[in-house]
């Protein structure tokens, strides 16, 4: 299970009445490392004023790597994080994540980050099993 969902939140979800705020709070509490990475990227993006902020530091353990993978592989979680922080997330491997300003999703930097060539250039033997 990727999220630690309280009985009350699950009951509301079964009724279809979960807010984005409730969902994002569940993500924040369940996946603290992924939250830290995405919130840090969002803060860096806001402070830097550029088109994107990039994170390429390997997670400290497999547990943290799993959190990041779960957060970015789930459409619902990723979308919730993007809406909450007002960014577009891009993901290349087990730890390389970028947050792009919504106005930059058609920029050359974004297109390069999500391109097949960009993906291939970001590979190394160490990342093969991550």
Account of the 3D structure:
It holds the Pfam family KH_NucS_shadow. By secondary structure, the chain is mainly alpha-helical. The protein has one domain (7-127). The protein has helices spanning 7-15, 20-30, 32-48, 62-73, 75-85, 108-113, 116-121, and strands spanning 52-55, 87-91, 97-101. Strands 1-3-2 form a three-stranded antiparallel β-sheet. Strand 2 and strand 3 form a beta hairpin. Helix 2 packs across helix 5 (75-85). The longest helix has 17 residues, at 32-48. The radius of gyration is 15 Å and the shape is globular. The protein starts with 6 loop residues before the first helix and ends in a 9-residue tail after the last helix.
Fill in the keyword field for this structure.
single chain; 130 residues; mainly alpha; three-stranded antiparallel beta sheet; 3 strands; 55% helix; globular
Concise summary:
This protein has 130 residues and is mainly α.
Blueprint of the fold:
Layout: H1 7-15, H2 20-30, H3 32-48, E1 52-55, H4 62-73, H5 75-85, E2 87-91, E3 97-101, H6 108-113, H7 116-121
Antiparallel strand pairs: 1-3, 2-3
Beta-strand percentage range: 5-15%
Tally of separate helices: 7
Helix content: 55-70%
Count every beta strand, where a strand is a DSSP E run of 2 or more residues.
Answer: 3
Q: How many separate structural domains?
A: 1
- Poorly predicted sequence stretches spanning 5 or more consecutive residues: none
Shape: globular
This entry's quaternary arrangement is single chain
Q: If you average the pLDDT, what whole number results?
A: 88
Order of helices and strands: HHHEHHEEHH
The helix/strand class is mainly alpha
* Major β-sheet annotation: 3 strands, antiparallel
Strand order of the largest sheet: 1-3-2
């Amino acid at each position: 299970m990727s999220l630690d969902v309280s009985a009350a939140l699950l009951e509301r979800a079964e009724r279809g009445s979960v807010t984005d705020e409730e969902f994002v709070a569940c993500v924040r509490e369940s996946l603290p490392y992924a939250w830290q990475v995405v919130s840090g990227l969002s803060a860096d993006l806001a402070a830097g004023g550029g088109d994107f902020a990039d994170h390429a530091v390997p997670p400290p353990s497999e547990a943290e790597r799993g959190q990041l993978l779960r957060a970015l592989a789930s459409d619902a979680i990723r979308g919730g994080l993007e809406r909450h922080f007002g960014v577009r997330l891009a993901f290349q491997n087990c730890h390389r994540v970028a947050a792009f300003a919504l106005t930059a999703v058609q920029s050359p930097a974004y297109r390069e980050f999500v391109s097949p060539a960009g993906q291939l250039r970001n590979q190394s033997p160490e990342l093969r099993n991550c």
